[in-house]
Write a structure and sequence with these properties.
mainly alpha; 5 helices; about 60% helix; about 0% strand; globular
């Protein structure tokens, strides 16, 4: 049981550390790049990624986001990023969840 607990704690620490880098500007940039590629508005992509209709507008107005929301949005963008579109090289990419709709933005 202790080993399982230790593994869970280590996994959680890696998860938090991995997404603590994602800034508001990086999220905005990812949303805008993906929106251009799939021919949707940044507002629509931001809504799909976050579940909030005003997510993108709030980020553009300078509002911050929590680490949890940044992680969730970054994961969505990574999972739905088109295979033929290069991910920006200066932004670390979360590992793709194989069960998500790879390369498909609903």
């Amino acid at each position: 049981m202790t080993t399982l607990f230790a593994k869970c704690c280590l996994t959680l620490m890696r998860y938090i550390a991995h997404f603590s880098y994602m800034s508001r500007d990086q999220i905005i940039r990812l949303i805008e790049v993906l929106a251009r590629a799939v021919r949707r508005s940044p507002h629509t992509v931001g809504h799909m990624a976050s579940g909030s209709g005003d997510f993108y507008a709030r980020l553009k107005r300078g509002h911050d986001l929590t680490t949890r929301r940044a992680a969730r949005v970054a994961q969505y963008l990574s999972d739905h990023w088109p295979t033929d579109l290069p991910w920006p090289s200066d932004i670390p990419r979360p590992a793709v969840d194989k069960t998500a709709g790879r390369g498909e933005v609903p």
